[in-house]
Amino acid sequence: MAKGKDVRVTVILQCTSCVRNGLNKTSTGISRYITQKNRHNTPTRLELRKFCPYCHKHTIHGEIKK
């Protein structure tokens, strides 16, 4: 029996302020988190407030393409 597309997909969340600022001189990288989302419940791109160790504060992390 053929299986359809998975409902739960793995997504990567990336800090939007690190990317927007073009990597500040003090920061050494870009904060990324890996999580899962339900494709039926959230068809749009996922955005969560997570802690960014490079910005040293809570910022919005947005979903990126793999």
Describe this structure as you would to a colleague.
- The structure is a single chain.
- By secondary structure, the protein is mainly beta.
- The protein has a domain of 44 residues: Rubrerythrin, domain 2.
- Helices cover 8% and strands 44% of the residues.
- It has 1 helix and 4 strands; from the N terminus they run βαβββ.
- Strands 2-1-4-3 form a 4-stranded antiparallel sheet.
- A hairpin with a 4-residue loop joins β3 and β4.
- The chain starts with 7 loop residues before the first strand and ends with a strand.
Could you name the key traits of this structure?
single chain, 66 residues, mainly beta, Rubrerythrin, domain 2, 4-stranded antiparallel β-sheet, 1 helix, 8% helix, 44% strand, elongated
* Relative strand content: 35-45%
Radius of gyration equals 14 Å
Beginning-to-end CA distance, first to last residue: 28 Å
Largest sheet: 4 strands, antiparallel
Question: In terms of quaternary structure, what is this?
Answer: single chain
Biggest sheet strand order reads 2-1-4-3
The residue fraction in helices comes out at under 10%
Q: Regarding CATH, which class of one domain?
A: Mainly Beta
In CATH, the architecture of one domain is Single Sheet
Helix run count: 1
- Low-confidence segments, ≥5 residues, pLDDT <50? none
Structural class: mainly beta
CATH topology of one domain: Rubrerythrin, domain 2
Overall spatial form: elongated
CATH superfamily of one domain: Ribosomal protein L33
